[in-house]
Structure formats: C-alpha cells, structure tokens
Amino acid sequence: MRKIVLNLALSLDGLIAGPNGEYDWCFTDADYGMTEFMNSVDSTIMGGKSYRLLLDYGSPYPELTKYVVTRTERESPYPNVVFVRDNVSSFVEDLKSKNGKNIWLFGGAEITQMLLERDLVDVLMLAVHPIVLGDGIQLFGKSSSRKLFELADSIRYPSGLVQLIYNKK
Asked: β-pairing, 81-84 with 102-107?
C-alpha cells in the first residue's frame, strides 16, 4: 500500500511559513535529501492555497500528478492536476490503495490537519531549520486525539538543519 508522506520545512517554533505565507527562510544551499525523496513519490496532495502559491512558479514538479483539495479551482493551465472537492478522506483512502509510489503531502495546514485527524498520514519528514520565526502558520492545530509516531531516522546537516523522519505507530 502506498503511504502519505508529509515532507516540509519547519522552524524551531513549529511554523511552516511566515505570517504572510512566506518561506524565504528555508535553506536552499544543499539538496537535503530531496532528490532521493522525489524518486520515492509519484504524486502530491495539497490544499488550494498551496496550489495557488505553486502557480506563481509555473508548473513545478511536472512529473508528479497533483491532487488539489479545493472548493474554488475548476481548471488548471497545466496537465496532471486533479481537483478534489468532496469526500476527501475516501478519495485519499482509495488513492493509497492504488498501485504506485508514495504520495507527497505537499502542504497546506488545513489539509494536513484534516488528514492527520483521520489517521491518513503515514510518515512525517520534518526538515527542522535552526530559526525562530516568531509568527506565522503553525504546522499542527488542535486535535481531537493524540497521534503517536515513532522516530525512524534523523539526519544532521552541516548547516544546522535536522531532518526528522517519523513513522505512524
């Protein structure tokens, strides 16, 4: 069965973006394992805000199918984009059961929270950057129950960035 893998940058104070959605604080001076990760996935799931942010950069990751959870978008200027409007949990469960590589939970605090709440996230890959932003978008919101993960690996880079990999227990 395919896995849903949340892979994203995180500040020391648990933020995934600045107060205006900015992520200019993310390190880009090295690969930080992204090439290996990209070879392990064939699609992404993201929220509408993350999708609109990506549109500013053209069509990044053209080789990946992009599943966009949105109420507003109707069509895309790029191929390999599928809009998901209803029954998101059922859609994701079905997607996980199909043949293919893992699925990158690309972002959006709301979609991440929803999939975590429904126990659909299998792996957390958190690239913890040695910076305190002070204000911005939190990774985790309130949850109705505890979610237990087990540390599978940690990688320390010379820049001070630490990649933490957790599997759902």
From this structure: unpaired
User: What is the spatial distance between Cα 110 and Cα 142, in angstroms, rounded to a whole number?
Assistant: 11
Share of the chain above pLDDT 70, in %: 100
Q: What angle do CA 164, 21, 163 make, to 5 degrees?
A: 10
Name the β-bridge partners of 123. Answer: 5, 167
How large is the average pLDDT for residues 49-77? 88
**CATH number, residue 140:** 3.40.430.10
Average pLDDT over residues 65-84: 91
Question: Is residue 28 in a domain?
Answer: no
Q: Are strands 149-156 and 162-168 parallel, antiparallel or unpaired?
A: antiparallel
At residue 73, the 3 state secondary structure works out as: coil
- The total number of structural domains in the chain stands at 1
40 is a domain residue: yes
Quote the pTM value: 0.94
